[in-house]
Structures are given as C-alpha cells and as structure tokens.
Amino acid sequence: MDRKPSPDCLTEAHRTGLHPFALEHSKAAYAADLGLYAATVVGLAIFLSTTGQQDQRLALILLTLAGLGGWTLIEYVLHRFVLHHIQPFCRWHEEHHRRPAALIFTPTILSASINALLVFLPAFMVLGNLRQACALTLGILTGYLAFGITHHAIHHWHLDNTWLKQRKHWHALHHHTVQAGCYGVTTAFWDHVFGSAEKPRGR
Asked: Collapsing DSSP states into helix, strand and coil, what is residue 69?
C-alpha cells in the first residue's frame, strides 16, 4: 500500500526548481546567486570608496566591520532558532539535512528581498545616512557571501586546507548528531558563547 505524501513535504516543483520559490536549483542558478551577491559587495565597496569625503572613511570602515561581525551572530540565530524551530523554514532545512550535497539554498528573490527590507532599510532609517547604511549593509552582505561560499565548500570541495577541514568537521557534528548543535558555519564563536558547542552523543 503506497503511503500518501505528507503535506509537510516539499512538492516536486520545490525540489526541481519549477516553483518560483524553489529551494533546489541548477548549477547555473546556484552560481548566479553567488555571483549576484559578489557583484553587490564589489559595487557597494566601489561606491563607498569613490564617493564622499575623506574624513568619513574611518566611520564607514568601522560600520562595515560591525556589519561583518554582526553577520556571524545573525547566521547563528537564523540557523539555530529559525531553520531548526520555525515552520516552514524548519521543514525546508530538513531537506538539506536529508540531501546535503543537493544545490539547495534560499531563493535569490527571497534572500534579496529580506536583505533589502530587513538590513538596508532599517540601517538607513536608524542611521539617516545613505553611505553609512550602505557600509553596514556591505559588511553584512560580505558575511552572507562568505557563509554561502563556506557552506558550499564544506559540502563540495576537497581541499587540503586546515581551516576548511576544521569547518567541515564542525559542520559534520551538526549534521550527524542526534541533538543538533554546532550551528555556526563560518565561525564557532557563538556556539561557544551560547553553549551549543558541546559535542552531542553521536548516532
């Protein structure tokens, strides 16, 4: 007797990329997503470095660094509390855990909208300055891009690199333990701060 598909499961359209908000993508779409964010980071960096007054550079650099550091906390919070506890994100993330080598990622239209509405716009409203908002956004987007590349490298690259091997081992603990922990991808810092760095019992 065939088992009826669960309504919580991803539809075939979501899996294959036929849905406008598909989670699994072709290699071309995957590369285009990383390329878009790389181009955005470069564009913002050029804009900030070629406009404005010289005496504002230090403040912009500090804001960029603050955004980059802030991303590591955002990454941790999103992974631990959103992707593992809030539907439908939890359900979508489970698909990645089931098939870690599949090209599954947040649809570009969704991630770009979130970054625009929840990163740039609030930064502009709070700081009241376009270049400062761009600087903070640059830092966060640089972190997001680093996360995307690092996560891809963890699952697809086979390099003899000590740092990458450490990240692979850390992420493997997250994927292959009964009780999830080790939520940081680009850094383990916040796992140590919030006590999720302890190695859980293995399967």
From this structure: helix
* Residue 201 and residue 179 in contact, taking contact as beta carbons nearer than 8 Å: yes
Task: Tell me which of 19 and 162 has the higher pLDDT.
Answer: 162
DSSP letter, residue 118: I
DSSP reduced 3-state for 1: coil
Instruction: Evaluate if pTM is beyond 0.70.
Output: yes
What's the chain's length in residues?
203
Closest CA to 183 of 91, 74, 89: 74
Q: What is the separation, in whole angstroms, between the first and last Cα of the chain? A: 30
pLDDT digits (tens, 9 = 90+) for 71-81: 999 999 999 99
CB atoms < 10 A from the CB of 43, how many?
A: 12
In this structure, the number of other CB atoms found within 10 A of the CB of residue 187 comes to 20
Per-residue three-class SS string for 75-98:
HHHHHHHHCCCCCCHHHHHHHHHH
User: What is the spatial distance between Cα 62 and Cα 197, in angstroms, rounded to a whole number?
Assistant: 29
* pLDDT tens profile 128-167: 999 999 999 999 999 999 999 999 999 988 888 999 999 9
Q: What is the pLDDT of residue 30?
A: 86
User: Environment class of residue 55 by beta-carbon count within 10 Å: exposed (0-12), middle (13-18) or buried (19+)?
Assistant: exposed
* C-beta atoms surrounding 135 within 10 Å: 28
Burial 105-115 (b: 16+ CB within 10 A, else e): bbbbeebeeeb
